[in-house]
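Example protein
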Amino acid sequence: MMIFFVLSLITAMADGDTAMARGDYTAAAQYYRAESEAHPESYDAKFKLARALSFSKRRIEAIQLYTELLETRPNNSDLLLARGRTYAWENRWHEAEADITAVTRRSPDYGDAWSALGDMYLWSDRPGDAVNAYGKWIAANPDNPRAYIARARANRSAGNLDAARADFEAARIHGAPDSEIDRYLSSLQRRRQDPEATVPDIYKWSASLSYDFSKFSTDRSDWSYYTATIRRYWERSSLGFEYLRSRRFDSNDYALALDGYVDLWQRAYANLRYQYSPKADLYPDDSYRMEVFQGVGKGWELSGSYDHMDFGEGNVALYGVGLGKYTGDWYLRWRTLFIPSAAKSGISHRALARHYYAGNADDYFEINGGFSRGGEFLVGTTIVETTRSQSFGAAFQNYFHPRWGIKISAGYDDEKTLVEQSIVERSISAKLLARW
C-alpha cells in the first residue's frame, strides 16, 4: 500500500513538472491540485500547486496557499520568497518588500532573493533601489551574466547610461550572447524629438537623401522636394549641413541650411537652425529657429521655440510650446504654434505618437495629426480670408542594416477657406539613411 502511495505521488508530480516545463501552467495546477487533495499531508504538492497558480495568474489563490503553508513553516525562505514574488506580480509592493527582505536579512548570500527584490523595486518605479539590490545579486553570483543585465536595465531606467553600458559589457564578458548585448546597447541611444539628432556611439557621421512629392485636388501644379543632408556627431552635440531643392508651380529653387543640436544643462538641449536661399523664389530669403527642450519629472519634456522667416517684403514669426512624454518604447508629443498677423493671428496644434517597436532609437512607426486656423488679407483689399486646415500622417523607419536604413512617410492635408473650395494635398516621402 505504501509503495502504491509513493508511486502515485511520483507519477502525478512528474506529470505536473512536465506541464510546468512546457509552460502549460493550468494543466500543471490541475495535476498538483489532484495530488494535494488526494494527499493533503504533501508539502511539495501544495507548494508546487501554489507556484503553478501564480504562473497561471490565479495569484490570490496562490497567496492564500503560500500563507497557509507559512503558518506551520514561518521561517521557510522559499515560501517567503515565492509569496513575495507573487505579491510583486500583483503590484502589492509593501507586502512583497516585507517578504523578500525577510529572506535577504536571513540569507544575505541568496542570489535569487536579491534578484526578486531588484525586480520588485524596478517594477514599482524605484530604479535606484533596484540598482543596489541587483548589486547584491552580483556580489552573491559574480559569474551570472543575468545579474549584470538586470543591474544594467535598472541603471538605464535611472538614467545612468554610462553605468548601464558598463554592466552590459560585463554581462558580455561573463557569457551573455553578443547579439543580445548589442540589442541592449542600442537601447541606450538617447531618444529625442528628432530621431536623426543622435546615433549610436560607434558612429560619428550620418547622411540622408530624400524625395517628397505632393499632389493637389485643384489645378495646382504638383510639388516636389529633394533634400540631401550630412551630419557630424560629437559627444554632446551634432551639426548637419543640408541642401534643399524644390519645384512648385513650375518654378525651381534651392536653399542651404545648417542644423545643430547641443546639450545645455542637465536634461536640457537645444536645436538651432539657419537656412538661406540665394534666389528666394520659393524658399524665404533666410530663416532661423531655436527650440529648447527641458526634461522634467518622470519622462516628461517641455519645449519652447521661436522661428523667423524673411520673405523680403514681409516677415513671419512663429512662437511654439510643446509637451512630450517618453514612456517605455513610446514617445508622445503635443505642440502648439502661434503666428501673429496683422490680418488675423493664426494658431496650429499638432500631436504625434511614435512607437520604437524594436526597443532601440532607430526603428519606429509614427502617426501624427493636427489642425490650424488663421487668416490673411485678400490681395489689394482689407478683407480677411480665414483658413482652416486639418492634417494626418504616418511614418515608418527601419534600419535593415546597422549602417543603412529607410524612412517612408505619407500625409493628407485638407485646407478650407470661406471664399474658395477645399484644397486637399496628398503627399508621400522616401528617405535613404546611412551612417558610419
